[in-house]
Hints:
The complex is a heterodimer of chains A (178) and B (441). Chain A has helices at residues 16-28, 43-48, 54-82, 95-121, 158-166, and strands at 8-13, 34-37, 145-150, 172-176. With 178 residues, chain A is an alpha+beta fold. In chain A, helix 3 (54-82) runs antiparallel to helix 4 (95-121). Chain A is rod-shaped, with a radius of gyration of 25 Å. Chain B has 441 residues and is an all-alpha fold. Chain B has a single domain (2-435), classed as Formate dehydrogenase/DMSO reductase domain (Formate dehydrogenase/DMSO reductase fold). Chain B is built from 16 helices and no strands. Chain B has helices at residues 2-8, 11-18, 24-50, 65-89, 95-119, 146-182, 186-196, 203-236, 248-274, 283-313, 316-327, 331-343, 351-355, 357-381, 399-422, 428-439. Chain B is globular, with a radius of gyration of 23 Å. In chain B, 52% of the residues are buried. Chains A and B meet through strand 2, helix 2, helix 3 and helix 4 of A and helix 6, helix 8 and helix 16 of B.
Amino acid sequence: MSDLPPAGVIAEFESAEAMVAALRAAKAAGWREMDAYAPYPVPEAAELLGAHGAPVGWIAIGMGLVGAVLAYATQWWLSVHDYPINVGGRPLHALPAFLPATTIVAILWASAGTLLALLVMNRLPRLNHPVFAVPGFGRASEDRFFLCLFAADPRFEAAEATRFLQGLKPRHVTEVPG
Amino acid sequence: MSAAADVSDTRPVADVPLKGQFGWRFALSLGAAAAGVLLLAYAVAALLIRGTYLWGTNIPFVWGFDLINYVWWIGIANAASLFAVILVLRRHGLRTAVNRFAEAAALAAVAAAALYPILHLGRPWLFYWVLPYPATYQVWPQFRSTLVWDFWGIMSHVVVTSLFWYTGLIPDLATMRDRAAARGKGLVARFYGVFALGWRGSVQHWARHQAAYRLVAALVLPMLVSAQTIVALEFATTLVPDWHQARLPLHVVITGIPSGLGVVLALAALLRSGLGLSRWIDEADMDLLAKLMAAASLGCGYLYAEELLTATLEDPATRDATLARLFGPYGLLHWGGAALIVLLPQLLWLPVLRHSAPAAVAIGLGAAAGVWLDRFALVAGGLLRDHLPRIGPLYAPSIPEWTLLLGTVGLFALLMLLFARLIPVVSMFETRHEESEAEVP
């Protein structure tokens, strides 16, 4: 173990309900810098931490619109202005013929935007994170639930945080190595 | 409830890819599939060196196996994706069981499909000419051409299907990483860890992940319909009387569904018996899947009846062309296909048959083969009555064309086998989520 101060204190719970209850208690007690970990989505906990999925949707809509405008404008400018070809007298600006590519490119941009928004908002990829050093944290992707109070919190003090988490009846409390 | 606790413990699913040995049957299948891919490489090399004269195509049958197989593979991909997406959007209980490998099958089928339009170009190495890039000659693609729609359609199909699959896979890759680490397989854990992008299961991440996953699912839906429609429009926008009909996109989209569902059903039967996953892909899942397939086939029956009826009401040129397809030299393929698509899956209403793995595989693949016959009849038979008298021989595929088809089947099989070997075939986080919700009183 290093001599660095701990990056936080983490408590392990057996059920989502216990973890959500602990999260609520921690919020009520005035802790601010914290995160909870679960093997499946726990919307209640996300709400307590103030995370929403909606911004992902807005970014996707924005990206989709950009894609649509770009696709349509490219087709229109290239077919009407830059390189007009008269095929049997058909109109150069052909809305029905331009629509299939416009729709599908808009969908392409929107879905790529969704994944990018997901990664950027989650600050991923980030292969290394202090919590990974906690022994037994691997079960967060199987069947255990964790609540971590981070050292970035202005009132953080390892002994005090450990005492607080102990009071929430976890399986056990560990310091996150710094 | 002990049964629920049993299912929510997804460790056995994660442990399948971590097994050291997969047995001789897997090795044999992998070898056969790899031989198929070698065959594909040979067929492609022969085509690149000697050209499309190797194929049986000629005027007026300018589209042969290339388009038949392309439309067929795309149909399988679309139906499998469509099925997975609808399950996710409706949060249906079946999604936990079949979602992951339905999406994987879709991805492998798109990969097989995407080869054909490139190969049939004549000079495949110039395929990038359909991309609007600033060329030296300052020439741009003809944006009013279906070929350009097709380019964007296939590209979006590949990218969006992969994104949907990967977004759903990230948390499960994290589980794989942690399972591998727990079992002391450091290198394997690193391999999965890189692709898991450092997922740590933060509930805030989960909230955005759920939004993103469902959003991409919702985006796949219109993408599938438009991609499949674009394929059908390539036929419908020509002046060939039998193809030049507004009903064609509907026909291609709807009859594609039994092929995709059939492949998914066959895979479900193979995976649950082959990998010992019958707890996660249970009998109720097989029941639902089989009944859905039988019902989709009934829908196709309606479409075939409508086709026959409207053909008799059309103008003489269209009527003659359609009747030539239905009752001409390729008529047997058409009706054989219709029987395999509409009648064969009706056997799935019998519980005995849908619970038997060999029967499910046979019926599922039989329906997929039926759709292939239907596509053959459409592509070759549709050209029997053109605007000019036909003087050449009928279209029949040559050996290089059969080789190419066999090669893409090998490619599909290889991708699916590698998928079953390396990636958890059941969506583990969806299973845990579903079970946690079921436990709430």
